[in-house]
């Protein structure tokens, strides 16, 4: 006879997983505080990465004599800057999500108004739509791109 073991959930940006209590109201104060903490930790980590990148780029400013080395360095910098730009956009989404917590709108689909669900928010804390609404949105986007 085998004993089923639960897979332990890992921390999300250093925050312990939220364990909802039976019958608890969706997006109550404890859940809002939990997601606010996740979003804040995530944002702070991204900002730290950006600061490190800036310092590293300043420290590594070297005039390499070999054209291949210069090209490699330029390619690396371009990739790093592109990554940081994506992270800058993500920080904006994180800040917007934190704002919806303050307004009491966090966790609800911006299209349907339905609860997004804790599991989806745990997987993607900046989600603004239910899975169904997101899939419909992506289908519409794909169709309009093909026209």
Give a quick set of tags describing it.
147 residues
> What is the strand content?
under 5%
Sheet/helix structural class: mainly alpha
Task: Please report the distance between the alpha carbons of the first and last residues.
Answer: 58 Å
Rounded Rg: 21 Å
The major sheet is characterized as: none
> What oligomeric state do these chains adopt?
single chain
Proportion of residues in helical segments: 55-70%
Q: Would you report the number of β strands?
A: 0
The general outline is extended
What is the H/E string?
HHHH
- Residue-averaged pLDDT, rounded? 87
Number of helices: 4
Spans of 5+ residues with little confidence (pLDDT < 50)? 1-7
Fold and architecture overview:
The model is unreliable at 1-7 (pLDDT under 50). The chain is mainly alpha-helical and 147 residues long. It is extended. The chain is built from 4 helices and no strands.
Write the layout of secondary structure elements.
Layout: H1 29-59, H2 67-103, H3 118-123, H4 131-146
Q: How do you describe this structure in short?
A:
This protein has 147 residues and is mainly alpha-helical. It contains four helices and no strands.
